[in-house]
Amino acid sequence: MANLAPTQVEQLQSIGAYLRQVRQEQGVSLEVLASQIFIRPALLQAMETGRSEQLPEPVFIQGFIRRYAEALGLDGKAISQEFKVNPVEVLPTPELVTPVPGNGVRSPEPELRPEPRPEIHPVEKPQYAPYTTSPRRSALPLWLGLGAAILALGAGVWALVGRNPAPSTAEDPPEITTELPSATDPLAEPPQSAAPLEPIEPETQPTLEAPIVVTASLSDRAWLSVVADGENVYEGTPEDGYEETWTAQDSLVFRTGNAGGVSLSINGDEPVVLGESGVVKTLTLTPNSNAETVQAAE
Q1: Tell me: the pLDDT tens digits for 61-95?
Q2: Which of 11, 149, 189, 236 has the smallest C-beta neighbourhood within 10 Å, fewest atoms?
Q3: Nearest-CA neighbor of 280 among 114, 57, 8?
Q4: Residue 216: per-residue pLDDT
Q5: Minimal CA–CA distance to 212: which of 281, 265, 142?
Q6: CB neighbour list of residue 82: distance below 8 Å, 6 or more residues apart
Q7: For position 4, what pLDDT does the model report?
Q8: What tens digit of pLDDT does each residue of 226-245 get?
Q9: Which domains does the chain have, with CATH numbers?
Q10: Distance CA 43, CA 61 (A)
Q11: What average pLDDT score do residues 274-288 get?
Q12: pTM, full prediction
């Protein structure tokens, strides 16, 4: 039951009378119009006559007015804005009223001077020294020097043994053998084992992380309203095949004018049809809500 202010009641009566007059001039019955916009005839009749005690909250009334007017070919958005959801009486702010002295002369207003803007200094781009690779040193001089040293050592030993020959009974001196690098590839380097490649993990799609996650899927055209944490995040009448997900921290109020055309998935549960076609349904969801919450609300 809607609890409307007196100004809202006057606005509803004026808009309802106008819409009823246009409907009658076009020769459209209330039942036919109700089946087109998925609103019960009793609610449309209460809206035309201004009986607020039979209507839901003001946000629903504004949505009904818009759908009613659009079905008649009128500007539904402009007409629905004439009904204020939250009427606010505008009063003058004391700070904006300039006091008038007793002599009737208004005191001069203080001069407003613009605040100086801070200076913006451009950020210099750092300069980087170009990267250069040092040339690889060849291993050929090292091998040549090592071979020359070995030859000199062998020549010295041979000269020493040749000048002082050992007696015939003495054992022959052991042969001195040295291993030289392979003549076929003097610059060859020992093979290096290749490091194993680390497996690349596939990228995963980001998931919605919130205490309340609600996904709506439409099988028929339906009016929807979603209020997340006190903020109206969606309101419209999408067609069948529409699917959308909303999140909230503390509470999420989900409303629809055609419960039979909406399937709702709450916090990862399986989708559940909200009710019968043409039925208005309102759900207040929390982090502890699930599919059983929808079934219990029927």
Answers
A1: 999 999 999 999 999 999 999 999 987 554 444 44
A2: 189
A3: 57
A4: 93
A5: 265
A6: 11, 14, 15
A7: 86
A8: 999 999 999 999 999 999 99
A9: 6-81 (1.10.260.40), 212-297 (2.60.60)
A10: 9
A11: 89
A12: 0.36
Query: What average pLDDT does the structure give for the chain?
Result: 75
What is the percentage of the chain residues whose pLDDT exceeds 70?
A: 62
Sheet order of strands, 262-266 included: 243-248, 212-218, 262-266, 272-273
> 186 versus 44: which is more confidently predicted?
44
**Which tokens hold the place of 147?**
């071979």
Residue 188 CB partners (closer than 8 Å, separation 6+): 181, 182
β-bridge partners, 58: none
Question: Cα–Cα distance between 206 and 208 in angstroms, integer?
Answer: 7
Q: Where on the phi/psi map is residue 128: left (φ > 0), alpha (ψ -120 to 50), or beta? A: beta
| pLDDT higher at 198 or 80 | 80
Average pLDDT estimate for 90-115? 46
Q: For 25, what's the count of Cα atoms within 13 Å in the CB-facing half-sphere?
A: 8
Task: Provide the phi-psi class of 241: left if phi over 0, else alpha when psi is between -120 and 50, else beta.
Answer: left
Count Cα neighbours of 41 within 13 Å in the Cβ-side half-sphere: 7
Residue count (the chain): 298
Instruction: Please enumerate in sequence order all residues whose Cβ is within 8 A of that of 41, keeping only pairs 6 or more positions apart, or say none.
Output: 30, 31, 34
Q: Is residue 226 a contact partner of residue 246, using CB atoms and an 8 Å limit? A: yes
